[in-house]
């Protein structure tokens, strides 16, 4: 009897456990599978970072594709192909829209299909290579106390306490500048095709530290994925002994007129303190010697004899990086350099608009081998080579698509989001002229058939305009009288 009761009790417990388990299974909702974004077949030809989801996205992308463009996941408009751009386009300090000395500046430039990305490296007091342009803090990077420090007197621990500055708002970000090794690793992780890293060396250092730098680049990026530039020939000469095959670019100083314009802008108060720090080396040089003295000390290497000496010192895989003003004054420098197996790159001290305006004056054969710019590849390629001219092979069906296809050739797709706000009004943003009407209405001029009476001497008479003095019917307004108590 006892055994039967025990067995019944045992089976009751088992049954209760099973019921609880089943109840628990029913009460726990089965998570629904995450929706899988399937790329429409019409957009399968687009790059992997293209947006493929959203309202009328197929029509939008095909409308952009008719202009050799596409909408990327980050909201930027990018070029489908840069094959028409017969120029090596280098991102000056990474993407100009991102904070300097940040990993984002490198990644964004790579994703925007720049041919190369230029970064600046210098040494701290403890011998650490870091990604930084200015010789002191205060402009792009700020110490938490607000004090300014020379980088060659900082340790890496102090450098790690710096904050980056947002370029658009000037606000400090909760991000720190990166060390050179972090920049190299970031570049290696995100580069594609034949993109290269242009490492501009800002510190005067010995061969041992240059060997250390070159070893890091070989380890993380590999030969062929990077090259060097510097304003110091001796630094480049040492690097040639360390790395016999790497490209070396010698940076010629800014043209005296460019320096004078910088100094004039500063005196007028047109620019702020950040502007001064950005061009500190050139401005202090001009201030110390005076612009006339700077002009007398300025060395030009565009002559054939100077290029020959430079080529003998740095080797055939080398080049001259020029202020665009110097390049425009010596248009045959490219021909001379090419005869020696050298390259010519241009940069500007007076802004990217001036740089582009000068390049626009040149024919394709006269262009330099490359340009170091603060602009997008789209803007350079479109302005110089019409690389995103509409083909008019696609007929859009949506409002956005029709707006895209209606835009003239000079539409600024770097400001695509902003431009969409004008689609109902029939306006767009031009690459050169700001806000413009898509279709300029023709002005109908009505001829005046009434002859103007002339006096004997030939001048027209002045006649008074006929004024209608009729005031019409009289209107009488009656106001209620005030009632007295």
UniProtKB/TrEMBL annotation:
**Per its UniProt record, what PROSITE patterns does this chain match?**
GP_PDE, PROKAR_LIPOPROTEIN
Q: Under the GO molecular function aspect, what terms does this record hold?
A: phosphoric diester hydrolase activity
Q: What InterPro entries has UniProt attached to this entry?
A: GP_PDE_dom, PLC-like_Pdiesterase_TIM-brl
A single Pfam family, by name?
Answer: GDPD
Kindly list the biological process annotations in GO that this record carries.
lipid metabolic process
Where would one find coiled-coil regions in this protein? none
Residue ranges annotated for the GP-PDE domain, each copy included: 86-379
Instruction: Write the protein's name.
Output: Glycerophosphodiester phosphodiesterase
């Amino acid at each position: 009897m006892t055994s039967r009761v025990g067995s019944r009790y045992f089976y009751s417990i088992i049954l209760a456990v099973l019921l609880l388990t089943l109840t628990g299974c029913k009460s726990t909702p089965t998570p629904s599978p995450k929706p899988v974004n399937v790329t429409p077949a019409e957009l399968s030809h687009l790059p992997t970072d293209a947006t493929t989801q959203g309202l009328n996205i197929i029509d939008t992308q095909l409308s952009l594709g008719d202009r050799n463009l596409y909408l990327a996941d980050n909201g930027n408009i990018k070029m489908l192909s840069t094959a028409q751009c017969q120029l090596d386009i280098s991102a000056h300090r990474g993407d100009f829209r991102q904070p300097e000395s940040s990993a984002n500046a490198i990644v964004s430039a790579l994703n925007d299909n720049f041919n190369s990305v230029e970064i600046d490296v210098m040494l701290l007091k403890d011998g650490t290579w870091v990604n930084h342009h200015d010789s002191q803090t205060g402009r792009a990077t700020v110490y938490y106390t607000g004090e300014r420090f020379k980088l060659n007197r900082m340790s890496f621990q102090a450098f790690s306490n710096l904050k980056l500055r947002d370029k658009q708002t000037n606000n400090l970000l909760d991000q720190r500048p990166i060390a050179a090794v972090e920049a190299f690793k970031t570049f290696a992780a995100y580069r594609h095709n034949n993109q290269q890293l242009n490492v501009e060396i800002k510190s005067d250092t010995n061969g041992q530290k240059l060997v250390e730098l070159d070893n890091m680049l070989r380890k993380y990026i590999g030969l062929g994925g990077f090259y060097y530039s510097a304003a110091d020939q001796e630094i480049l000469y040492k690097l040639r002994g360390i790395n016999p095959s790497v490209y070396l670019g010698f940076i010629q100083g800014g043209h005296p007129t460019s320096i004078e314009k910088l100094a004039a802008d500063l005196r007028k108060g047109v620019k702020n303190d950040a502007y001064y720090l950005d061009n500190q080396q050139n401005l202090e040089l001009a201030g110390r010697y005076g612009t006339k003295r700077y002009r007398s000390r300025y060395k030009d290497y565009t002559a054939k004899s100077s290029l020959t000496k430079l080529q003998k010192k740095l080797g055939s895989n080398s080049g001259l990086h020029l202020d665009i003003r110097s390049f425009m004054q010596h248009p045959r420098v490219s021909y001379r350099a090419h005869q020696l197996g050298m390259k010519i790159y241009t940069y500007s001290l007076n802004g990217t608009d001036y740089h582009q305006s000068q390049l626009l004056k040149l024919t394709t054969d006269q262009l330099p081998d490359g340009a170091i710019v603060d602009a997008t590849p789209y803007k350079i390629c479109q302005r110089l080579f019409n690389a995103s001219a509409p083909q008019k092979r696609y007929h859009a069906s949506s409002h956005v698509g029709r707006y895209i296809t209606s835009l003239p050739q000079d539409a600024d797709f770097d400001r695509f989001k902003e431009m969409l706000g004008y689609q109902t009004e029939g306006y767009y943003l031009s690459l050169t002229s700001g806000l413009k009407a898509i279709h300029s209405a023709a002005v109908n001029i009505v001829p005046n058939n009434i002859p103007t009476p002339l006096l004997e001497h030939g001048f027209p008479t002045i006649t008074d305009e006929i004024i209608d003095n009729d005031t019409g019917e009289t209107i009488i307004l009656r106001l209620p009288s005030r009632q007295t108590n």
